């Protein structure tokens, strides 16, 4: 059938992930109520469908310590928190850790890596 609708399809180009910030960095999860967790913020851009949200935390040997999960989401600002614990609930030792944010969408994928310092 013919109609009056006009549909334009175009590839989405550019970053999917922007504005990554870690605050505070370093953080001190020692139970004193000050800087006991770090906030990992990022903005998803140019998404036309919802995607899984999450951040992975690795030690410097490449072993995944923690997977922080959010719900599914589309283009918006997101914030996840890390309290210095691994997936088993054990406190990670002081040191540098790597965060990994991966966005996989129908228009492509993008990954951001950075470091977080945990001190006591």
Structural write-up:
By secondary structure, this protein is mainly beta. The protein has strands spanning 17-23, 38-44, 51-58, 64-73, 76-82, 95-105, 108-118. A hairpin with a 2-residue loop joins strand 6 (95-105) and strand 7 (108-118). It starts with 16 loop residues before the first strand and ends with a strand. The model is unreliable at 7-12 (pLDDT under 50).
Task: Summarize this entry quickly.
By secondary structure, this protein is an all-beta fold.
| Broad structural category | mainly beta
Number of strands: 7
Count, helices:
0
* Strand arrangement in the largest pleated sheet: 4-3-6-7
As a percent range, the share of helical residues equals: under 10%
Oligomer: single chain
Using only CA atoms, what is the Rg? 18 Å
The biggest sheet, with number of strands, parallel, antiparallel or mixed sense and barrel status, is: 4 strands, antiparallel
Distance between the termini: 69 Å
User: Helix and strand string, N-terminal first?
Assistant: EEEEEEE
List keywords for this structure.
single chain; 120 residues; mainly beta; four-stranded antiparallel sheet; three-stranded antiparallel sheet
What does the secondary structure layout of this molecule look like, with pairings?
Elements: E1 17-23, E2 38-44, E3 51-58, E4 64-73, E5 76-82, E6 95-105, E7 108-118
Antiparallel strand pairs: 1-2, 2-5, 3-4, 3-6, 6-7
